[in-house]
Design brief:
Elements lengths: L10 H7 L5 H11 L6 E5 L8 H4 L4 E6 L2 H11 L5 E5 L12 E7 L7 H11 E10 L2 E3 L5 H14 L21 E14 L1 H8 L3 H4 L5 H14 L5 E13 L3
Parallel strand pairs: 1-2, 1-4, 2-3, 4-5
Antiparallel strand pairs: 5-8, 6-8, 7-8
Helix pairs in contact: 6-9, 7-9
């Protein structure tokens, strides 16, 4: 199973229930990368555009490359009003994007699906000298504020969560320096979400493994999760960390 295409099954649900990124992150990108109409930007795997519009609003020459056909169609409908928007429905790993083309290449929770030797090598290749690679995502802590609830959720998970293939993607973002990048930096921002049982189920339903759940396990799992959150005053608090890794191609 190619997990990269799993999300493409649910573009509307994905767009509605995935968290967005904070303004401070895009302010940082715009400041460091001097984003304006003179800059060419490539986004790897935008999904349904959780990180796209703030970059488009800088006026940059924006291109996305998206593997999923449904996601690419969704993006076209959503952002076609922007004259600086372009999307390529193809695979970043194999598509010829040229050399020394972009001032910024960025990924919002997508680059980890690509082996680092391909991801970092190709990002380096397509960037102009002095250009930046930006990688960010949301890391969610559901345990710290809900210890008892988390344990109940884990019990439901252990009892009913049965999938044919486990998510195994992993990338060490700091390894960019092994592929020629310099000035690797890290910063992060924190935020909180409080979700009801139904909102939480809609949110976790956009996770790759959850999308592949089959009956009868799917119904039993979500029923157990819903009951656990309802018994916790119908809320779960999630503490999000948004990390940003920035690295530069030497001049």
């Amino acid at each position: 199973m190619d997990f990269r295409k799993t999300f493409d099954r649910i573009p509307e649900e994905f767009d509605k229930n995935r968290p967005r990124y904070c303004k401070e992150l895009f302010d940082k990108l715009s400041l460091v990368c001097h984003l304006d109409y003179n800059k060419k930007v490539l986004e790897i795997g935008p999904g349904t555009g959780q990180a796209t519009e703030p970059v488009l609003l800088t006026g940059c020459d924006y291109t996305a490359i998206e593997l999923g056909e449904n996601f690419a169609s969704f993006m076209k409908r959503k952002f076609s009003i922007y004259s600086n928007f372009k999307i390529i429905n193809d695979d970043f790993e194999t598509y010829n994007l040229g050399e020394n083309v972009y001032d910024l290449v960025f990924s919002a929770a997508a680059i980890q699906w690509i082996p680092e030797e391909i991801a970092f090598t190709k990002a380096f290749q397509v960037l102009k000298p002095g250009g930046y690679l930006a990688m960010f995502m949301t890391r969610s802590d559901e345990r710290s504020s809900n210890v008892d609830l988390y344990e109940k959720i884990q019990e439901v998970y252990d009892k009913y969560f049965r999938v044919r293939q486990k998510y195994g993607c992993k990338i060490n973002y700091e390894n960019v320096t092994k592929y020629g990048f310099i000035n690797c930096s890290y910063c992060e921002w924190k935020s909180e979400r409080i979700l009801t049982a139904d909102e939480y189920i809609s949110y976790i339903g956009t996770h790759c493994e959850h999308i592949t759940l089959e009956e009868p396990h799917k119904s039993l799992y979500y029923s157990g999760i819903r009951d656990a959150v309802l018994q916790n005053n119908n809320q779960i608090k999630i503490i999000d960390t948004i990390p940003l890794y920035l690295a530069q191609k030497p001049l």
